């Protein structure tokens, strides 16, 4: 694999083509000129690698694609207008009516919706399975299972799947493996190295970084990328525009620094939470109590800033009071940006027309951003007084 600094600073940046500018230009153009008929014919022979029209290919977007593929150690990549778009393209490209998808039991909410609500309309069925146990995955394989969908770790309780074992099992049964690798980012886990076929990301999270772009990433072999390009990308058209691509290139420059900072700060805060009397349990893949600690350490190089806490308290009113006392953490969805966040499970209780969640109301997911961890801890400590 290439050096990360080489990828982030040099790969794909053909500066001699744009006045030796250090930052790449935003090629804000929908279409590209064919100087003569020979060029016309050459370009249409392969739209994936030539410039015809920005739905298919754009030079700014292409710089980003090269960097992302290199970061994941795959031959090529595609980018989409959202992580959900990348997930949907990866799955849809590999199934047809009558097929079956096997999925770990708690993926991202809109991935669940894709399998539960969208694909059944087209005759594609699914089974959710406890992905922490390879034998349960094996037992759920049907003769028509075509896709094994993983998310390791997932982003509330961080359940992991054994990537090497899943890839081997899938190969044995002719299934395509897809993983949502958003939690780790390519810096902390490279599923392709374990034999996983397609790696998708919500680039909205760590890859971009400053919480200002929604973007999806799909990394795979040249053949798989070509198949998805010619079908899902070009027909559904969920592309990333050149301006957003330039913003994501800019975000990527600081990915190693940001991730290291979030990782360091999260560990600092977790160490203090560990000793706090109001903390019942901590979920974090590298935490000493994590049930899959050994597996997490085997396939991941770090965890980043996302973890969950179950607090010790006897009343939902106290939990609500705690949430409202936090002033430096923002209550918001998403994660992976500059800002520290919380999602309290109690917020999902008593929503009109929705069932209560399976997670207890004492549970909160935290994301630690780039702020001073001591300043964040002060906020947590004063809020925990009311529990
Ligand atoms: C946010 C997220 C997604 C969806 O990505 P968008 O960019 O919001 O469409 C998918 N998977 C995981 C794990 C996520 O956190």
Summarize the structure.
This protein is an alpha/beta fold and 387 residues long.
Description:
The strands form two sheets. A seven-stranded mixed sheet has the order 1-7-6-5-4-2-3, with helices on both faces. A five-stranded mixed sheet has the order 8-9-12-11-10, covered by helices on one side. With 387 residues, the chain is of the alpha/beta class. 46% of the residues are buried. It contains 14 helices and twelve strands. It folds into two domains: 4-252, Aspartate Aminotransferase, domain 2; 255-384, Aspartate Aminotransferase, domain 1. The mean pLDDT is 97. Strand 4, helix 7 (163-172) and strand 5 form a beta-alpha-beta unit. The longest helix is centred in the C-terminal third of the chain and has 20 residues, at 255-274. Bound molecules: pyridoxal-5'-phosphate. The site of pyridoxal-5'-phosphate (PLP) has 12 residues, from helix 4.
What does the radius of gyration come to?
22 Å
Number of domains: 2
Estimate the mean pLDDT confidence: 97
Helix/strand order, N-terminal first: HHHEHEHEHEHEHEEHHHEHEHEEEH
CATH superfamily of the largest domain: Type I PLP-dependent aspartate aminotransferase-like (Major domain)
Ligand types: pyridoxal-5'-phosphate
CATH fold call of the largest domain: Aspartate Aminotransferase, domain 2
Instruction: Tell me the total number of β-strands.
Output: 12
Q: How would you classify the helix and strand content by structural class?
A: alpha/beta
**What does the largest sheet look like?**
7 strands, mixed
Helicity range of the residues?
25-40%
> Strands of the biggest beta sheet: in what spatial order?
1-7-6-5-4-2-3
> How widely separated are the two ends?
48 Å
CATH architecture type of the largest domain:
3-Layer(aba) Sandwich
User: Count of helical segments?
Assistant: 14
């Amino acid at each position: 694999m290439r050096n990360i600094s080489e990828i982030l600073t040099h790969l794909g940046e053909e500066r001699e083509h744009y006045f030796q500018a250090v930052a790449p230009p935003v090629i804000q153009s929908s279409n590209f000129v064919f100087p003569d008929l020979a060029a016309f014919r050459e370009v249409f022979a392969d739209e994936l690698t030539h410039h015809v029209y920005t739905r298919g290919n754009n030079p700014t977007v292409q710089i980003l694609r090269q960097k992302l593929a290199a970061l994941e150690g795959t031959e090529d990549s595609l980018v989409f207008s959202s992580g959900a778009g990348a997930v949907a393209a990866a799955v849809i490209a590999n199934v047809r009516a009558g097929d079956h998808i096997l999925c770990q039991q708690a993926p991202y909410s809109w991935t669940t919706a894709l399998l539960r609500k969208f694909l059944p309309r087209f005759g594609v069925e699914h089974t959710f399975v406890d992905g922490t146990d390879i034998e349960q995955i094996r037992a759920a394989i049907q003769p028509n299972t075509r896709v094994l969908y993983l998310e390791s770790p997932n982003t509330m309780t961080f359940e992991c799947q054994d990537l090497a074992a899943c890839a081997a099992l899938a190969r044995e049964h002719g299934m395509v493996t897809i993983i949502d690798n958003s939690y780790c980012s390519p810096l902390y886990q490279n599923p392709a190295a374990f034999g996983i076929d397609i790696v998708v990301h919500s680039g909205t999270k760590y890859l971009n970084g400053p919480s200002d772009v929604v973007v999806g990433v799909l990394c795979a072999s040249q053949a798989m990328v070509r198949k998805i390009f010619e079908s899902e990308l070009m027909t559904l058209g969920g592309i990333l525009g050149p301006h957003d691509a330039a913003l994501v290139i800019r975000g990527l420059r600081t990915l190693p620094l940001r991730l290291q900072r979030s990782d360091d700060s999260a560990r600092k805060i977790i160490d203090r939470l560990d000793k706090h009397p109001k903390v019942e349990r901590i979920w974090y893949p590298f935490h000493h109590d994590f049930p899959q600690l050994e597996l997490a350490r085997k396939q991941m190089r770090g965890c980043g800033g996302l973890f969950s806490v179950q607090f010790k308290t006897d009343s939902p009113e106290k939990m609500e009071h705690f949430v409202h006392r936090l002033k430096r953490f923002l209550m918001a969805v998403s994660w992976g940006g500059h800002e520290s966040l919380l999602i309290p499970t109690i917020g999902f209780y008593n929503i009109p027309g929705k069932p209560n969640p399976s997670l207890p109301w004492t549970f909160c997911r935290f994301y630690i951003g780039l702020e001073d961890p001591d300043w964040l801890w002060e906020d947590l400590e004063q809020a925990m007084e009311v529990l």
